[in-house]
Amino acid sequence: MKRKFGPAERERFFELMGAGSSMNAASAAVGASRGAVRRWWAQSGPMTPLRMGPHGGMAEPVPPPREKSGRSLSSEDRAVIQAGLGQRLPLSQIGALIDRDKSVISREIRRNRGPDGVYRARIADRLAGSRRARPKPFKLAVNELLCRRIATWMDQGWSPRLIADMLRRTAGRDQTSRVSHETIYQALYVQTRGNLRADLNQQLSLKRRSRVSRSSRTNPKNPYREAFTISQRPAEAADRAVPGHWEGDLIIGGGNRSA
């Protein structure tokens, strides 16, 4: 007979995952199968991917302990927010408990709750810690699943801009499952910046080997693009031995130099 799990087992699983436990260890602790806990995470986990295996867990590392500061919320602050939400306290009252404005509480819940709408302090602390981490890893260098999705769509003839738009529509609040079209271009043209296949750049309608920034493009209508620069003037003009050359210096320099 298939065992039914209540909210207590599910919340215990998320508590263990937020504390740094592997998925195998967390599922064994609550007595659930790996298939069951994967479904729980798909329904309620606010981030992907997970590192699978006996030692794998959430991709984001456990953040170091942080003291309360004027800007960042501490793990204790987030525990108070979770407890206050469980007691259905108003946001203004929860903010008063940790000396924060209710707008801070609202933003914290909105950014760090799961897809099911539930705010979990341990998971929220991991999310906030991953946002603070510097330098930021290149997204396509650490997300193999995302790379496979992009490669499949590019094999079907999709453009990077269309892929980025589809990822934005399907990922929801999961920022780890969406990238900009420029990130895809960088992974294609600079192979050290991602795990996309090297041959995918041939799928692009643009056949150049590298990206050309807009700032580097020259204006074809510029009347001075073929003009000589002052560094190209002949040596006899530089020593000002011929009358008239020093007058050009005065005009170009805009100063009042003597010969």
Largest sheet, in brief, is:
none
Number of strands: 0
Question: Which quaternary structure do these chains form?
Answer: single chain
Low-confidence stretches: 248-259
Share of β-strand residues: under 5%
Radius of gyration: 29 Å
What portion of residues is helical? Answer: 40-55%
Q: What is the CA–CA distance across the termini?
A: 103 Å
- Arithmetic mean pLDDT: 76
SSE string = HHHHHHHHHHHHH
* Helix/strand structural class: mainly alpha
Total of helices: 13
Shape: elongated
Task: Report on this structure.
It contains 13 helices and no strands. With 259 residues, it is an all-alpha fold. Among the domains are: 75-132; 139-203, no CATH class; 221-259, no CATH class. It starts with 6 loop residues before the first helix and ends in a 6-residue tail after the last helix.
Sequence-ordered SSE layout with sheet pairings:
Layout: H1 7-18, H2 23-30, H3 34-44, H4 75-86, H5 91-97, H6 102-112, H7 121-132, H8 139-142, H9 144-155, H10 160-171, H11 181-189, H12 235-238, H13 245-253
Helix pairs in contact: 1-2, 1-7, 2-3, 4-5, 4-7, 5-6, 10-11
Give a short synopsis of this structure:
The protein has 259 residues and is an all-alpha fold.
Task: Output the keywords.
259 residues; 13 helices; mainly alpha
